[in-house]
Task: inverse folding
């Protein structure tokens, strides 16, 4: 055996290791265990120095594969390998699991399973260093030794596939997609040394649960599900509602994606600073409108319901003002009517035959943003504009089935609009044009900004012993787990609460969860259940700060945006922010408070927004736009700097939320 690894070399010469041997810890998700895992386990088992290999299966469900099923499959596929034990663990991160196991371990020699040629080896070296004598997690004085003991082999790769994964390291996510695609021939390449009976066993164990999860996720579109990989399907149907408000749906900030891994966050930071984000457009601070064209008339939809059945409930252009709710402010009703008047004028200009074909008699809708100085939110554009985002195609239920971002059909609409607008005799109020693709300008001091943001991210990971493959949900879970463990001894109860609070698993109501526990603990949990969103919001502050600082750096260095005068627009936003902050000072000095508890809750809400502005560097971070919208790993996100907390403060007062 080649003992070139210094860590093992040190220990192999010690007399007692011959008696005790090395315990190999192999923590992971194993959703499912595959040929790459099994090959590494088998290599360790063949070594006389190895006493046992403990396969530690994490708790997180993945695409319908729960912990029990993952353990069952792992036990089956390692049943012929000596020294293997398969165990369940509660901790969400493989590296965190290793820290916890070593923290409670009996005296002996321990090593993490890893290939010397894979990325995991870097984590192993760091793990060993932190457990070496004199460092934070060392237990050598108690006889617990952590050593390096990697296997000197390349990761096992796919061989015999008929897709672009051929030659890549075997991956559980690829195997799950094979099941989704009903592709057994590609699936079996993930188990090159397993029997066909074992491979069929894994396939049959997983197929129903993965497909059931797919149907839950994709709903009415499930009949088409098996025709596409999950990633392709997710791109088409989960991430494309990209413009916030109205019928177009809600955009999320990156920190709201609890499945986003730290590796993905790091790459997003680098891509954003280097101007490499995909499909970037300006996020406009206006009102969303969706319009279709049929039978010579433009129709407006503000909800998905109004787009159903080719827009049978949509509002005809000349009935907008009278059809909007009585609660709709007068200025909004007027602005919408003016906008639809202009769209009707433009669409009916000249030959409309192509438009009838493009809009498919109400199945396609033009997704647009209304920018009206009289209805502005925060960003003072100073010009009446209607900006075109894309074309959305929907089914009879108003559900999105396609989005057209560019191409011949969208170009025809743009050409038609531009031709009409060149006619000076045409009377209209708004400039109508496509949303600009923004340009990234060089960021001054980019290296120091990059270093600062990456270090902030690493600090979050180190504090919670998280690694690149952990995600934001894992981070929140670990913070809550540490907090809850100071008050609650039962690990099952802690995990139930984490599933409820972090992932929204509410199969039991809170009363049933607390049924047989100490009344004092139950009362405390119930109180925390009511304010858990605030606590999670506070836990997210360090991640929100990273994205806020990233947003400021990017947004202040863009060109091609809708603001005609950047300095004037930035100053306008700042004035509104300062006015709102002054209102906070007045609000917190109120003396005639009737509902003290509600008042304190609102004060906390306002303090949170102020804290997030301050953490990101204060009002100096204001940029002359709301933000950008971009595509990242098949999903659509927004990046808004400090716009969001400013908006929340302004809306708090403007819409009477302080009453």
Result:
């Amino acid at each position: 055996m080649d003992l070139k690894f210094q860590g093992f070399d040190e220990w192999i010469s010690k007399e007692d290791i011959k008696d005790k041997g090395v315990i190999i810890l192999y923590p992971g998700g194993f959703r499912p265990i595959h040929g790459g895992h099994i090959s590494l386990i088998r290599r360790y088992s063949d070594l006389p120095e190895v006493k046992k290999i403990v396969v530690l299966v994490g708790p997180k469900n993945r695409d319908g594969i729960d912990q029990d099923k993952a353990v069952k499959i792992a036990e089956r596929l390692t049943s012929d390998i000596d020294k293997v034990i398969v165990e369940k663990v509660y901790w969400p991160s493989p590296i965190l699991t290793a820290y916890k196991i070593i923290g409670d371990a009996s005296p002996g020699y321990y090593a993490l399973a890893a290939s010397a040629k894979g990325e995991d080896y870097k984590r192993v070296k760091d793990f060993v260093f932190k457990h070496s004598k004199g460092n934070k997690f060392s237990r050598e004085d108690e006889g617990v030794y952590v050593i390096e003991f990697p296997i000197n082999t390349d990761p096992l790769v796919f061989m015999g596939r008929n897709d672009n994964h051929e030659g890549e390291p075997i991956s559980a996510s690829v195997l799950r997609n094979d099941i989704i695609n009903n592709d057994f021939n590609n699936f079996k390449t993930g188990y090159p040394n397993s029997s066909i009976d074992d491979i069929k066993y894994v396939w049959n164990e997983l197929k129903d649960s993965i497909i059931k999860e797919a149907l839950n996720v994709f709903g009415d579109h499930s009949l088409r599900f098996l025709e596409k990989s999950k990633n392709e399907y997710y791109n088409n149907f989960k991430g494309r509602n990209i413009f916030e408000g109205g019928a177009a749906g809600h955009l999320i900030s990156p920190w709201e994606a609890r499945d986003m891994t730290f590796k993905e966050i790091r790459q997003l930071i680098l891509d954003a600073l280097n101007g490499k984000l995909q499909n970037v457009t300006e996020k406009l601070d206006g009102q969303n409108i969706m319009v279709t064209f049929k039978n010579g008339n433009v129709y407006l939809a503000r909800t998905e319901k109004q787009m159903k059945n080719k827009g049978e409930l949509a509002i005809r252009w000349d009935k907008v003002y009278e059809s909007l709710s009585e609660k709709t402010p007068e200025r909004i009703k007027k602005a919408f009517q003016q906008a639809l008047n202009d769209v009707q004028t433009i669409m009916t200009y000249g030959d409309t035959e192509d438009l009838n074909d493009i809009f498919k008699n109400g199945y396609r809708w033009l997704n647009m943003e209304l920018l009206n100085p009289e209805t502005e939110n925060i960003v003072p554009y100073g010009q009446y504009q209607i900006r075109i985002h894309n074309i959305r195609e929907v089914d009879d239920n108003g559900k999105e089935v396609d989005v057209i971002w560019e191409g011949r059909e969208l170009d025809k609409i743009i050409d038609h609009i531009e031709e009409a607008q060149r006619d000076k005799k045409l009377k209209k109020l708004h400039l109508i044009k496509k949303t600009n693709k923004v340009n990234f300008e060089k960021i001054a001091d980019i290296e120091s900004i990059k270093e600062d943001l990456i270090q902030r991210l690493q600090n979050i990971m180190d504090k919670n012993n998280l690694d690149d493959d952990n995600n934001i949900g894992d981070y929140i879970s670990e913070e809550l787990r540490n907090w809850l463990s100071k008050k609650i001894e039962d690990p099952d109860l802690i995990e139930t609460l984490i599933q409820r609070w972090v992932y929204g698993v509410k199969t039991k109501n809170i009363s049933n969860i607390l049924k047989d526990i100490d009344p004092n603990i139950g009362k405390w949990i119930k109180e925390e259940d009511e304010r858990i969103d605030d606590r999670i919001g506070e836990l997210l502050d360090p991640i929100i700060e990273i994205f806020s600082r990233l947003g400021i750096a990017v947004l202040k260095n863009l060109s091609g945006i809708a603001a005609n005068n950047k300095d004037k627009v930035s100053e306008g936003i700042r004035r509104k922010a300062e006015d709102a902050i002054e209102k906070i000072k007045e609000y917190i000095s109120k003396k005639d408070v009737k509902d003290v508890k509600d008042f304190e809750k609102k004060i906390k809400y306002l303090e949170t927004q102020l804290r997030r502005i301050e953490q990101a560097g204060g009002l100096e971070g204001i940029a002359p736009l709301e933000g950008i919208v971009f595509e990242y790993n098949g999903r659509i996100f927004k990046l808004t700097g400090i716009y969001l907390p400013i908006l929340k403060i302004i809306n708090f007062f403007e819409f009477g939320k302080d009453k």
